[in-house]
Fold this protein.
Amino acid sequence: MSRQTLTAILPQKAEAVLLTSPHNLRYFTGFSGGEGVALLCEDGGYLFVDSRYTTQALEETTDVTVIEIHAKNREEILQKHLSPLKSIGYEEGQLTVGAFDGFLKFAPKSDWIKLSQDLEELRMVKTEEELNCLRRAEAIGAEAFLAVLPQIKIGVTENEIAAEIEYQMRKRGSSGTSFETIVVSGYKSSMPHGKPDYKKIENGDFVTMDFGCVYQGYCSDMTRTVAVGSITKEQETIYQTVKEAQVQGLSTIRAGVLGKEADFAARKVIEDAGYGAYFGHSLGHGVGLLIHELPNLSPRSETVLKPNMVVTCEPGIYIPKLGGVRIEDMVCVTEDGIENLTQVPKDLLIL
Ligand code: ZN
Ligand code: ZN
């Protein structure tokens, strides 16, 4: 996690790279304050922050020069550092048009090179330090889920379950959720990313819970679906199909495999069972400082999986009006398979 990793793109692609997103600031400089501008070159770099962050930036960074900026000197300082550069890489996927124009005016003659994809690729393979954060983040989610399970019963609302999951994660050291907690039940479970509300859990409902926390900047992600009361034969078939697809996906993931091959292995189980039309999304995605990052495990992903990439495996079947099931684990790719970071049973649980 340092400027050193940028040698893969500097100076070949650009003379310097301008970073503004909280995750890239953190990854490439160590600064976790979230707000600032980094300008990194092959042989040095600067981190511009305002007075709220100066102390933190000085403490957290080692190989950049921290410069405090304020309303009066901001333009002058950025002008001084940006204008001599012939080419400047930037995060086109993160900057608004307005914010980009604000930087462009300091170096209108420079080549501005889009580097969002390159920067994301540099973050794909995790260091041991990052893996430890991801392991802990996922463990917090798992512990929270197991603590909440006894409270899932007929009459409880989705909102209550969502609140309880978030509370239990906070208590265990999470600094927040990695995305908006999903708790959907009954007919609503057919919406893969539906929102929890005042709907009460009813007899025969599937309850799908997809949630994650943030631990030392790193995200977790897991999904479990449980059933409440008595369910139909078809619900049981759907559950077992998703579970089998998930296991097939997991057993395909290893170093050297293409993202699309993992997707195919899981998708085939669902298609063979006749539910192919009800699995619309990709099998999984990378996780790190962002909840969704590279690599993708999608039907078109040509990315070759490498050891220490962290990805999710989350097939689902969603049938309008009837309901849906998704099961998601977060795993670390190894030479000969995976390390599953999600230590939670996935046999059908009927509460
Ligand atoms: Zn998820
Ligand atoms: Zn996910």
